[in-house]
Each structure stands twice: as C-alpha cells, then as structure tokens.
Design goal:
Elements lengths: L1 H7 L3 H7 L25 H12 L8 H10 L7 H10 L20 E3 L5 E10 L6 E9 L5 E7 L4 H14 L8 E4 L8 H9 L3 E4 L9 H11 L11 H17 L11 H5 L3 H18 L18 E3 L18
Parallel strand pairs: 2-5, 5-6
Antiparallel strand pairs: 1-7, 2-3, 3-4
Length: 333
C-alpha cells in the first residue's frame, strides 16, 4: 500500500481516511458545565459537615470570613470563605436579614413638543458671587420646541415660592390655556416642592420630573446653561445681584432674538416661537436660488437648500417612533 500511494502521489493517511470501512466511533454527548464533577469539589459528607458548623449556635450569626478565620486559628480548615458563601447561597441563606426599603422604579419621562408652549423645561443654576462659596441663583424656563426662554429670574436664594412666582408670570405672559402645557424639571427640592405642585395643579399644567441622577432626562435646560456659561463674556463671578441681572438680561435678549440655534434649523428661538419660521425659510430659499442661478458650477451635487424646518422635539424619544423625524441636534446650542 505504501508503494501504491507513493506512485499515485497520495499520502497513506488520506487513503485510509477516505476508504475506512468501519464508521467513526460516536462522540459522547457533552456534559453541561453545571453537571460536571469537579475534582476539587467537597464531598457530600464534607458539605454536610460544613453546613452543620455554619448552622451551629457558635457560628450562626457570624460571616463566613469570621468562621474561616476562627477555625483557622484553632487549627481547623473546612473550606475557603468563598466556598462557604457558595454553599450558603445554594441554600438561600445569604440574603439580607433585616427589612430593606424598596423604592418603585421611576418611570422614564417621554415627552414630545410639536409646537410652542406645549412642553417647557426649567431648572436652576448657580452663578458665582463676590466671595468664596457665595452664589446667586438663576431660574430659567425654556420652551422645548422653539428653545425660547419664556421666563428667567436671578435671586439670592433657591426657593419654591420664587419658582412659583416665575412660573405664574411666564404662563400669564404666554397666555397658556388649561391642559395645554407640560412642565418638565429635575428632582431638586424646589422642583418637587408642594408649593410648585399645587400651583401646577391649579393652572391645569401637567408636571414631569427626571429620574434620580439622570441628567439626560432634562437635556434642553442643561444644554442652555452650557451655552450661557460658555459665552466669551461670561464673568467668572458677579460682584452684586444687580450685576448678575444686568448681564443675564443682555444674554437672554441675544439668545432669544439673535442666536441661531442648530437644533431648530439655525433659526432664532424668537422666530420659531412666534411662528415666523416658514417665512424666514422661504426668504433663505430665494437667496440660495439666486446664488445657484448666478453660479451653478459652484454647487456640484445639488442646488443649495436652507436647513430643515424645526422638527418635533423629544425628551427620551421612544424607540418605536421610527416614523417620526429625528431632531439630531436636540441638545445642541
């Protein structure tokens, strides 16, 4: 056979493998990992002895680490602390003995604003004062759809009563009707206070709160504060409360009327809030059409178009809302 294989240029192993008459022996079925017998595992007698010691009056209230160390000092070794924990866990004896407070899961807020004065977001941020550890408090209410600041206030303290006054004045200024508005905020004491809750109930305004320690649930206020504090002229501190109010008045006038916001098609918040977005976009389109007519060679792929009009703005957009337009710059300023 060797000579024949050599003449044919075939390895003997190949020949025997292809012409094997007897079937290959069946492989044994694999044993699941949990059912495998570990060589180093305790025997049934050793496990019973270990459980008896752990249940004894001497060690019934001691942790496995304490049991292991005590026995080791007495010259006895039954098992490692990890093995003791594992044996107790199999018997359901490693839980907390005392009653533990349980808190219901907080619902993930899912809000959508398709027009102005439908969803507002409000928050409070600190402004550095004249001395170390001294602050002024800036209250801001922003419309989620238009990014328009509908109300703001600078005070020397954080107070639910001041927040109540600001919300009331903002609703009156915007002529908010009952059952029209949802106000979203995080869970600071002012936002969750009984004073504010009763006010919103009286005004028939739906309130919404972020989940604890989830800053992404209030993205519009957080992004707005970043825009404010990243301004080149934002001072490192304010000498007086009046100075803070003067600076904020100038900033909010600029933000509402001059700041082109990337999340709303590079329009100003005032333009969107007052329903002028379509007119401004048409004017932009005419300018771009004229530019294309004058120099079409400068636009290689397609004629230029203005940015898309503002889309419905979401807080925690559901995954099943695939048919809704996505506001990719929801938190961009």
């Amino acid at each position: 056979m060797s000579e024949a294989c050599r003449a044919l240029g075939r390895a003997r192993a190949t020949h025997y493998r292809r012409h094997r008459k007897s079937p290959a022996p069946a492989r044994p079925a694999p044993i699941p990992h949990k059912e495998r017998r570990q060589p180093a595992a305790l025997s049934a007698a050793e496990r019973a002895r270990l459980v008896e010691v752990l249940h004894s009056e001497r060690f019934v209230d001691a942790s496995p680490d304490q049991v292991w160390a005590t026995l080791l000092d007495e010259g006895v070794y039954l098992a490692s602390p990890r093995t003791m924990y594992r044996v107790l866990a199999e018997r359901g004896e490693t839980g907390e003995r005392r009653r533990q407070a349980t808190h219901p899961a907080h619902v993930k807020p899912e809000l959508v604003a398709a027009k102005p004065n439908e969803v507002w977001s409000w928050d409070i941020t600190k402004l550095r004062g004249p001395k170390k550890w001294s602050y002024f408090y800036l209250y801001v209410i922003i419309d989620v759809y238009s990014r328009y600041v509908v109300g703001w206030m600078v005070a020397d303290r954080e107070s639910a009563v001041l927040a109540e006054d600001l919300i009331t004045a903002s609703c009156q200024k915007q002529s908010v009707n009952p059952d029209q508005l949802t106000i979203h905020a995080d869970r600071d004491t002012s936002m969750t206070s009984k004073t504010v809750a009763l006010l919103l109930a009286d005004l028939a305004i739906t309130r919404s709160h972020s989940r604890p320690r989830v800053s992404n649930d209030n993205p519009y206020s957080e992004a707005h504060f970043k825009t404010l504090k990243y301004r080149p002229d934002f001072p490192s501190s304010f000498a007086t409360l009046q100075d803070a109010r003067v600076w904020c008045r100038t900033f909010f006038d600029y933000y509402n009327n001059d700041h082109r916001h990337s999340g709303i098609g590079l329009l100003t918040p005032a333009t969107v809030h007052h329903g002028e977005a379509a007119l401004v976009r048409e004017a932009r389109a005419r300018v771009l059409d004229a530019a294309y007519a004058a120099h079409p060679e400068r636009f290689v792929r397609q004629p230029p178009t203005p940015p898309k009009p503002p889309q419905p703005a979401w807080i925690n957009r559901p995954q099943h809302e695939e048919d809704q337009p996505v506001d990719s710059d929801a938190t961009s300023s």
